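Section 3.1: Structural characterization of target chains.
Under the original work plan, the team committed to producing a structural model for every single-chain target entering the pipeline before any wet-lab resources were allocated. The record below documents one such target. The sequence was received from the expression subgroup and is listed exactly as submitted; it comprises 321 residues.
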Amino acid sequence: MSYIHVKDLEKRFIVREKRKKGAFFREKKMINALQDVSFDIEHGELLGYIGPNGAGKSTTVKILSGILTPDGGEVTVGGLVPWKERKEHVRRIGVVFGQRTQLWWDVPVRDSYDLLKDIYRIPGEEYTARLKELTEALQLDELLRTPLRQLSLGQRMRAELCGSLLHRPELLFLDEPTIGLDAVSKLALRDFLKWENSRYGTTILLTTHDMEDIVALCSRVMVLGHGRKLFDGTLHDLLGRYDTVRTVTVRYEEADAWPELPDNAPAVCDGENLVITYSPAEYPTAEMIARLQGAGTIRELTVQPRNIDRLVADMYREMDL
């Protein structure tokens, strides 16, 4: 059986709607957070789990981590049922939420790690070696004696990751780990996650709205919408379905150069540049470049795929999310 096995997973919540004018009681409404969701994840996979707000991503993570009990279906993680064998299960997992902390706010980071050592009952020599490895990889050496509240957001996220991995979990849940981080911090965090996954085979389930995280880290992607699984496959296949537009920007040596282009790929002036948007399926890129070269001497030329966030927006729109 796969390391994570989910079959026909269901979870429902009862919510109270806003009280209508003149009504004494608020009406109750049943929300299907997850409906017939099935998937398998092998040990060592790094999987991107995406979808709009309210799609059911966090509910799935809470069930897989043992916090919630589902209303139907089967779930096992490493042979354990998370909510039934929770004590044993939590020893094998790590969880990082982008806007929450598991470390103590007012004490030095090292003191929080020492407490986690006792909570997870990590042997002394193993703890020392692991802490040294993680602090070097995450560049935390100079921050260990600093209270968490004094760290920047990027430093805090690195500290959270270290705390979640001290006990060498088999499975790491990451919920929006790069939210609010600057570009340098994002790159460093992504590099570390790839290192951890490659070196130790840690299974990582990443939920995020930042598609650059998915592109940088994940070869497999699942898309959830309205509590249902809508897509499960490679990132290449996902992009192949929605990455249907290219933009080419060209600047000529000659001021009056103008290529002959089809009606469905018009050129627009942008200062000294010409900008052409086209579909490579209808008009191959090689043919487009050949036409551009035939119009004059090219000084600069770039071909760009569609912005990844626009791809996701198009995908959600097509799926009516």
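The radius of gyration is 25 Å.
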